[in-house]
Design goal:
441 residues; alpha/beta; TIM Barrel; 8-stranded parallel sheet; 17 strands; binds (4S)-2,6-dioxohexahydropyrimidine-4-carboxylic acid; binds zinc ion
C-alpha cells in the first residue's frame, strides 16, 4: 500500500475530537488519510504548521449571500471569498434572496451556480412559504440542502409564516430538522404603534423586545412537540429563551450569534447607529451574559455570523426602514478567537461550536472534525497574532463591518479546502473550487 500523501500538514497543534495534540496530518485525494504521519513519509506538498493551531475547517451555518440579488452588496463569489479570508471553509446560505430560493427550479439554478462560482463549500437552505408546503419533503432532500428555513416573523425579504396552523403544516411536511427565525409576528405588529419613524436606533431593541423572541420560541416548541419535528432555533438572543430551551433538548438545537456575544446595548446603538440594527436585536448585558452562560453550559450547539450585508444607502434610511442586518462572515473567526484569547471560552469549545456542532445539527457528511476519511478541510490559526479589523479588508462589496477599528488577538492564517490551500496570509488562492456539502437525509 502506498504511503505517499498529496499533502502533509506537519508539526501543528491539532484540534482533534479527543483534544489538542501535536501531530502531522496526511491528506490524499482531498480527504484525511492518516494522523501521526512520520516525518519520513513522502508527500507532494507540505505545510509547516509549527506555532499554529490546526482546526477542522470552520463552518458558518448562517450567512445571507444575497445571490440572486444585488451583486453590488454581496454575491456567492464575493461572500465565499470573504469566508475563506475569515478562516471558514464552509458556509450555509439563507434563502431570502431576490427572488427567494423556494422551489425546485431556483434550487437547481443555485446548485449549478454554486459549483461554478463558490470559493468555499456550501450548504443551502430552502425557504418555506404558504404555497410550497407540499413540495418541502422533496426539496429538503435536494443536493446541498442543509435544512428548510422558516421565518416565523418578518425580517429582510418577504418570507413569512406566522400562524400556528400553517407552521404545523410545515412541520408535518418532511422530516429533517427545520431552522427557525423565532420572533412573534403578531406582537411585532401590535407594538409597532408604540414607536415613530425616526426614533433612535436603540428603539429597535424595545420594539423587538425579549418577550417577542420568547413568545415565538414558546409557540414553536409547543408545535415541535405536538408534531414531533426537530427544530433548530437560529440566533437565540434572550435569557428567557436560554432558560426555557433547556427543557427541549430532545427536540431543539440552538444557535447563538457572535454579535449577541460581543455587542452590548445600549452602548452599541450609540456607537454604531444603524450599524447595530439587526433581527433579533442586539440586547443589554443581562442577555449577553445569559448567552455566554448558555455557551458554557453546553446549551448552545453552534455559533454563526448571520452575515447580512446591506448597502450603506439601505442602512441610512431612518428607523424602522433602515435595513436590518450586519456583515460578519469575515469577522466571525477573528472575533471568536479573540474571545478565546480573553478567556471567555476554550479553543476546543470554539471548535465544537464552529465545526463539530454545525456538522452535527445538520448532518453534514465528512465535515467538522479532523479524522481519517473526513474532508481535508482545515483552518490554521495563530492564537497570538494581534490584528485590527478594518472596513478596507472586507471582501464583501458593501464594504463595511460593525467591528471596524477593533483590535483582536488570534487570526486565521490559512484555510485548506479538501486538500488544497485556498487562503494564505490574507490572499485567496486558486479558482472557485467550492462544492455542495452532502447531508445525511
Ligand atoms: O438582521 C437580520 N438580517 N435578520 C434577519 O433575520 C435577516 C437578515 C437579512 O437577511 O438581512
Ligand atoms: Zn439570518
Amino acid at each position: 500500500m502506498s504511503t505517499h500523501y498529496d499533502l502533509v500538514i506537519q508539526n501543528g497543534i491539532c484540534a482533534l475530537h479527543w483534544g489538542l495534540e501535536e501531530t502531522s496530518i496526511g491528506v490524499r485525494d482531498g480527504r484525511i488519510a492518516a494522523l501521526g504521519v512520520p516525518a519520513s513519509a513522502s508527500a507532494t506538498a507540505r505545510i509547516e504548521a509549527r506555532g499554529l493551531h490546526v482546526l477542522p475547517g470552520l463552518i458558518d451555518a448562517h450567512v445571507h449571500l444575497r445571490d440572486p440579488g444585488d451583486a453590488g452588496v454581496e454575491s456567492i463569489p464575493t461572500g465565499t471569498r470573504a469566508a475563506l479570508l475569515g478562516g471558514l471553509t464552509t458556509v450555509f446560505d439563507m434563502p431570502n434572496t431576490a427572488p427567494p430560493v423556494v422551489d425546485a427550479e431556483r434550487l437547481a439554478w443555485k446548485q449549478d451556480y454554486i459549483e461554478r462560482a463558490a470559493y468555499c463549500d456550501m450548504g443551502l437552505y430552502i425557504g418555506a412559504t404558504r404555497e410550497n408546503i407540499p413540495t418541502l419533503a422533496e426539496l429538503e432532500t435536494g443536493r446541498g440542502v442543509c435544512a428548510i428555513k422558516v421565518f416565523a416573523a418578518s425580517s429582510t425579504g418577504d418570507l413569512l409564516i406566522e400562524d400556528d396552523a400553517t407552521l404545523a403544516r410545515v412541520m408535518r411536511a418532511g422530516r429533517r430538522r427545520i431552522a427557525y427565525h423565532s420572533e412573534d409576528e403578531y406582537r411585532l405588529r401590535a407594538r409597532r404603534a408604540l414607536f415613530s419613524q425616526g426614533d433612535p436606533y436603540a428603539r429597535h431593541a424595545a420594539w423587538r423586545d425579549p418577550e417577542t423572541a420568547f413568545l415565538g420560541t414558546r409557540r414553536l416548541m409547543a408545535l415541535a412537540r405536538e408534531t414531533g419535528r426537530a427544530a433548530h432555533i437560529v440566533h437565540v438572543s434572550t435569557k428567557e429563551e436560554f432558560a426555557y430551551l433547556k427543557d427541549f433538548r430532545d427536540i431543539a438545537t440552538a444557535e447563538v450569534l457572535v454579535n449577541h456575544l460581543t455587542q452590548v446595548a445600549p452602548e452599541c446603538y450609540e456607537r454604531l447607529g444603524a450599524y447595530a440594527v439587526m433581527n433579533p436585536p442586539l440586547r443589554d448585558i443581562t442577555h449577553v451574559e445569559a448567552a455566554w452562560r448558555a455557551v458554557r453550559d453546553g446549551l448552545v450547539d453552534s455559533i454563526g455570523s448571520d452575515h447580512a450585508p446591506h448597502s450603506r444607502e439601505a442602512k441610512a434610511r431612518p428607523w424602522p426602514e433602515t435595513a436590518a442586518g450586519l456583515t460578519g462572515v469575515q469577522t466571525l473567526v477573528p472575533l471568536m478567537l479573540d474571545h478565546v484569547a480573553s478567556g471567555r471560552l476554550g479553543l476546543m469549545r470554539l471548535v465544537d461550536l464552529l465545526a463539530a456542532g454545525p456538522a452535527r445539527v445538520f448532518g453534514a457528511v465528512g465535515k467538522g472534525r479532523i479524522a481519517a476519511g473526513y474532508d481535508a478541510d482545515f483552518t490554521l490559526v495563530d492564537l497570538g497574532a494581534k490584528r485590527r479589523i478594518e472596513n478596507a479588508q472586507m471582501a464583501t462589496p458593501c464594504g463595511w463591518t460593525p467591528f471596524d477599528g477593533m483590535m483582536v488577538t488570534g487570526w486565521p492564517m490559512m484555510t485548506v479546502l479538501r486538500g488544497e490551500v485556498a487562503m494564505r496570509d490574507g490572499e485567496v488562492l486558486g479558482p472557485p473550487r467550492g462544492r455542495l456539502v452532502r447531508f445525511f437525509s
